[in-house]
Amino acid sequence: MRFDFRKKKKPLKPLILTVFLVLILSLLVTQKEELIKFSKSFNISKVSKTVATKDIKGTKIQKARDINLTAEKPQFAEKKLVLCGIFQLEDQRYAFLKSSDGARFILREGEYAGSFKVESVYIDSVILVWNNGKREVIQW
User: Fold this and answer.
1) 46 neighbors 68 (Cβ within 8 angstroms)
2) Source organism's superkingdom (predicted)?
3) Which terminus has fewer CB within 10 Å in the chain: N or C?
4) Which residues contact 41 (CB under 8 A, 6 or more apart)?
5) Within its chain, how far is the Cα of 96 from the centroid?
């Protein structure tokens, strides 16, 4: 009987590592937009700036003040919407809208979608009312 003292190869170890790597990469690719939003939230958006002020006795004091550098959008900022389809089920008409940021909406007349409301749906157009009161007609 002969004994083989050489180290035996483990074929499952590279396979498990490859599967693990593929899973991690696929999660990164599918969640790319979420990761971008996540990384933007951790950006240092404030810078400390020193401002010279005088106290009651007249001596100068260096005071730190935070300044927000990121330009924030107002809450009523409108999205650019595109009408992709209109369909009718029984007596209800629905509008299929896509926004510039990739969000998709399927709404019937009178439904709210965050910052706007679908007022009415016609054969070739949709009338929207934004939260700031502005009315907009989107056509094919």
Assistant:
1) yes
2) Bacteria
3) N
4) none
5) 20
Q: What is the pLDDT of residue 37?
A: 56
> pLDDT by residue (tens digit) across 18-74?
888 888 877 777 766 665 555 555 444 444 444 445 555 555 554 444 444 344 444
The residue assigned the tokens 């107002």 is: 74
pTM above 0.85, yes or no: no
Q: Kindly state the tokens that stand for 119.
A: 């007022």
Alpha-carbon torsion (99, 105, 111, 113), positive or negative: negative
The token pair at 133 is: 């009161």
pLDDT above 80: residue 124 = yes
Distance CA 51, CA 24 (A): 47
Q: Compute the 3-state secondary structure of the chain and give helix, strand, coil in percent, each to the nearest 5.
A: 20, 40, 40
In degrees and rounded to multiples of 5, residue 109 shows phi and psi of -60, 130
Rounded-to-integer distance, Cα 27 and Cα 25, Å: 5
